[in-house]
Write the structure tokens for this entry.
Amino acid sequence: MANQGQSAAEIVFDRATKVYRGAPAPAVDELSMTVPAGEICVLLGPSGSGKTTALTMVNRLVEPTSGDIRIDGVSVAEQDATGLRRRIGYVIQQIGLFPHMTIEENVATVPQVLGWKRDRIRDRVRELLDLVGLPPREYGGRYPAQLSGGQRQRVGIARALAADPPVMLMDEPFGALDPITREHMQDEFLRLHEQVRKTTLFVSHDMDEAVKMGDRIAIFREGGHLVQYDAPERILTAPADDFVARFIGADRGLKALTLRRVGDLPLEPADATPDTAPLAATETLHTALSALMTSGTDRLPVADGDGRLVGTVTLDLIRAEAGRPAPHEGEVA
Amino acid sequence: MIAAAGPHPVIPDFGPVSRCVQDNGFFCTDWFTANWDSVFWPALVQHVRLTVMAVGIGFVLAFAAALLAHFKGWLERPVGGFTAFLYTIPPLALFELLVPGTGVSVLTVEIALVAYTLMVLFKNTLTGLREVPPDVRRVGEGMGLTRRQILVRIELPLAIPSILSGLRIATVTTISTVEIAAFIIDQGLGSPILQGLQSPFNTQFVAAGALAVALALAADGLIVLVGRLLTPWTHARRAV
Ligand SMILES: Nc1ncnc2c1ncn2[C@@H]1O[C@H](COP(=O)(O)OP(=O)(O)O)[C@@H](O)[C@H]1O
Ligand SMILES: [Mg+2]
């Protein structure tokens, strides 16, 4: 990218607690976790479990009652709130585009208040609109009311990325979109994240979204308690308690299959002359299982990217894999 | 030479005049054009001047008060209540109240006119400033805009439609109140209307009245036009 700015930053919650004035109990209770630089951490939990509160303590829209939050080792409380926020991208469900500004003006907001030169702002805005798939020539001069919901959300993301912040906070960013657009935006964001690698806190109440987007998932329950903080696979295969097990749903076994690929199984040897079309080794076990169900057999051939047969997947193999808990991934705060 | 309507308006002796004037027609174009320079144009200019001054001063005061009330919420009730109280006083009574202090003067008239603009300008400006959707404000704050930047970049532009609709009402109301001010000062289109009403001759008050209506419509249209230029986002068409 032309504008290679600050790299990602590590975020540490250190017993961060928020008790709203007059509230009988904390909204976030002694939250401690470490989000490694460059990862996407999904904050998942039912409504009212303190996800938004936890998220907005990072950019100080909410001040912690006690405890601390550090970005790359520096406590947010010690930083000037305005300066801090300009180094943190912020995207919310309702998007909050400025209705009276064109798309370009919206995206240019933070660079402008940071005092960038006009040319630099213009180049950066164009680069970002291209990055999120909105050609600046066509969309730059439009107003938010002239865009679809998905397009607006892209502008919201471009605007949050404008000053190349090392941290992104996203509060149910795709929650208001229809399912098809939402999936599309999830894919787009993952692709974007591959390129820009911001440390991202992503609030969601949708298990499928969390499994898809998260390098790690932090599961909250009412009262702002963090009950499990782990890789998606670990959460699906080894839920910490009944609450997590219920929250992720009875089909967690099936969901876990979406995280593993056919090629990773110890496949049986390929049959010489298979009578069905082969599966790609890059397909998920979820897809493989579905293919086995519809084919009516209990074994299917597997082919690599060049169409060469590399082995055979069987129902027994998938069942064995599904029963195996994921390896523990290490540093959990 | 045709005389202007004098201070004691009876049908004047115009000398040789048109049939229309002799018959006291509803509206005599020849008399109107002959008296344009001496009667109607000066009255129109005075009318515009009185209105612009009143709305201008009223806007500055109400705008400042609304900004204060926007930041210090407790000011809304007292200021809003006071401007509403001013608005309830009948114009002639207010003129009478002021004359002992400020005399039979333009100042008296302007004080009263300004007083009447305050309520709607204050209310609409404050409403406009508060119209910013909460999410928009939250994102602005979360992006690191200062309070002043949120005001200048977001709240004020989004308040423009509401402020302008207040200005439309204030302007049109002031234009008609200026007509009543002719009871106090010999200025504005109210003067020929008053004189015309006291005489059986039709053209004078018909013409002055029509001019006042035209002025109100023109001022209203002008503000609408300015509003369209200032708020392109409110009428941007969905391009596909
Ligand atoms: N500004 C606030 N003032 C008082 N209570 C709040 C405020 N914001 C959130 N809460 C309360 O804190 C708890 C957590 O809210 P929130 O962080 O918004 O949860 P979530 O995002 O998981 O739905 C809820 O009980 C909510 O009612
Ligand atoms: Mg929330």
